[in-house]
Write a structure and sequence with these properties.
Blueprint (H helix, E strand, L loop, with lengths): L1 H44 L8 E5 L5 H10 L6 H10 L9 E5 L5 H10 L5 E4 L6 H10 L3 E2 L15 E4 L3 E2 H21 L10 H15 L5 H14 L6 H9 L11 H5 L22 H8 L8 E4 L5 E4 L2 H48 L1
Parallel strand pairs: 4-6
Antiparallel strand pairs: 1-2, 3-5, 7-8
Helix pairs in contact: 1-3, 2-3, 6-11, 7-8, 7-11, 8-11
Length: 370
């Protein structure tokens, strides 16, 4: 009987020892897990290893695993597994968006993740100047290396709003065209609603046509409202607009510049766009006017002037009478002649300097050979 009791106690002792051992292992395991968890948190939040701001690209359809691997491969993070653990822990593992992101120097894994999930992708710009024709707009977009795709067709002249447009690398060019169209339509609607009801412009399309002429004549200076006022006066009096840029557009169709002055035969030719020969407005815009030109036509400056010509200072000289205008034209031609003379003298001096340098080089070579 004593023997059986002894065996029973021994068995109970073994079970207790086993339980103690298992409990110890569990405690050690929990400690290890806790330590590992703490280590991961520290690593996830500590300053990163990139020494300077770095752009990182997330490709379309990239998942957390591939992004973490690429970040590690580029040396932006040092442990893809901790990065993935942090993403899951913060419930941010499904929020990665395509685009390029600017990661600040020494960004922690947490900061990297937050930027990729909540940050705004790096933006690129394309600037379309006021007065660009639709052909010029298309050419500029096609030349921009950060854009992709083709443009379905050349937009109608005057249907785009010149401005600086921001986009992400890889954006389709047609997206920019569509954005420019919408911006123009929205702006035109608002400007048309606030126009001077007394101007002799019957439709929004006519407003764009005249604004495109004002844009080309004003040349980007601040006298657009006054230039618009002159054209409005001429329309009210039944006078022809007599705008050189309209003739040029009729010749080039907006594809590049003429590159020379107008010929007398071109001024005398009766074409749809020759406002020296036709009454009223041409059949369509000659460029894509900017906001200020559109506003200038909608609400032109009150003036008695019927004529204007360049003043040589970046603006225009305005006149009420033709005689006064002729004096302004004579002054402008004198300025043109003086500029041409200066340019000729500069070209002559440059040619003489080049010739002297060539002779000096030939002499030096001759002396060296001798």
């Amino acid at each position: 009987m004593a023997k059986k009791e002894k065996k029973k106690k021994k068995r109970q002792s073994g079970i207790i020892q086993t339980l103690n051992a298992m409990l110890s292992l569990i405690v050690l395991g929990l400690v290890a897990v806790g330590a590992l968890f703490y280590y991961a948190i520290v690593q996830f939040n500590k300053p990163g290893q990139i020494a300077e701001d770095t752009v990182f690209a997330v490709s379309e359809g990239s998942g957390l695993n591939s992004v973490a691997g690429e970040l590690e491969a580029q040396g932006i993070i040092d442990n893809r597994y901790i990065f993935r653990f942090g993403a899951v822990a913060h419930e941010l593992n499904k929020g990665l968006k395509r685009g390029e992101y600017l990661l600040p120097a020494n960004a922690s894994m947490k900061e990297v993740l937050d930027t990729l999930v909540n940050g705004r992708p790096v933006q690129y710009d394309v600037t379309i100047p006021e007065g660009f024709t639709s052909w010029q707009v298309v050419e500029r977009l096609l030349a921009h290396e950060d854009l992709t795709g083709e443009i379905a067709e050349r937009p109608a002249e005057g249907s785009l709003l010149p401005n600086t447009y921001s986009f992400e690398r890889g954006t389709d060019r047609q997206v920019i065209i569509d954005e420019m169209k919408k911006a123009q339509a929205d702006a035109l609607e608002q400007i048309w609603a606030g126009r001077d009801q007394n101007i002799p412009i019957e439709t929004k399309e006519e407003l764009v046509i005249l604004a495109s002429i004002v844009e080309e004549e004003a040349g980007g200076v601040d006298d657009r409202p006054l230039v618009a006022g002159v054209f409005i006066n001429r329309l009210n009096k039944g006078m022809r607009l007599q705008s050189d840029p309209t003739i040029i557009y009729g010749i080039t169709k907006g594809e590049g510049t003429l590159g020379r002055g107008l010929k007398r035969s071109e001024i005398d030719a009766k074409t749809d766009y020759n406002t020296y020969q036709i009454d009223g407005l041409p059949p369509g815009p000659i460029s894509n006017p900017g906001l200020e030109a559109l506003k200038a036509v909608a609400n032109p400056e009150a003036t008695d002037a019927l004529f204007f010509v360049a003043d040589g200072q970046g603006g225009h000289a305005f006149a009420v009478t033709y005689d006064e205008h002729q004096k302004n034209v004579a002054a402008w031609r004198k300025i043109e002649q003086e500029r041409a003379k200066i340019a000729e003298e500069a070209a002559k001096a440059a040619a003489e300097a080049a010739k002297a340098a060539e002779e000096e080089a030939a002499k030096a070579e001759s002396d060296q050979n001798n």
